[in-house]
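Our consortium's second objective concerns turning raw sequence data into structural hypotheses that experimental partners can test. To show how far this objective has progressed, the report includes one record in full. It was chosen at random from the queue rather than selected for favorable results. The single chain below, 159 residues long, was entered without modification.
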Amino acid sequence: MPATTKIPPIRKTIRVAVPAKRAFEVFTVQMHRWWPPAHSILKAPRAAITVEPRVGGRWYERATDGSECTWGKVVSWNPPDGIVLTWQLTAEFAYDPEFVTEVEIRFTPDGTNATRVDLEHRHLERYGEKAEAIRPMLDSPEGWGSCLTNFAAAAEAAS
């Protein structure tokens, strides 16, 4: 498929029973607590996931043996309203500094002590001929769905 064919972004929304500031913190600072262990691309067990808290910061995972794998970079850091990250993992889930899709997460207050979290993973057409296969995988309950479900549980348990 040509890279010019538009693939719809993945959009997910979840409501968490914590204020936006706390939701942002759990999403960014405590990602290692909720990111599914099966979603690691390291060869050794994962020790941490880090989102460096600044524009240009790295988004990466580190294994217990000290090895690291970059997933992307911080494009926008706007606590507690939102964050935009590059997702630089290919269809084979290998880091490629030349490959870029984006993940935007918005945190919107939703009543007292609750937050609506909107996730959009866009520019999926950049996967080229693999876009139509990778999109359903990322959009599945085991993809971004499980990430957000785990995130919500961690955010509410941390409050």
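The partners drew two points from this record. The longest strand covers residues 68-78. The chain has one domain: 10-158. Both points have been shared with the crystallography group to help prioritize constructs.
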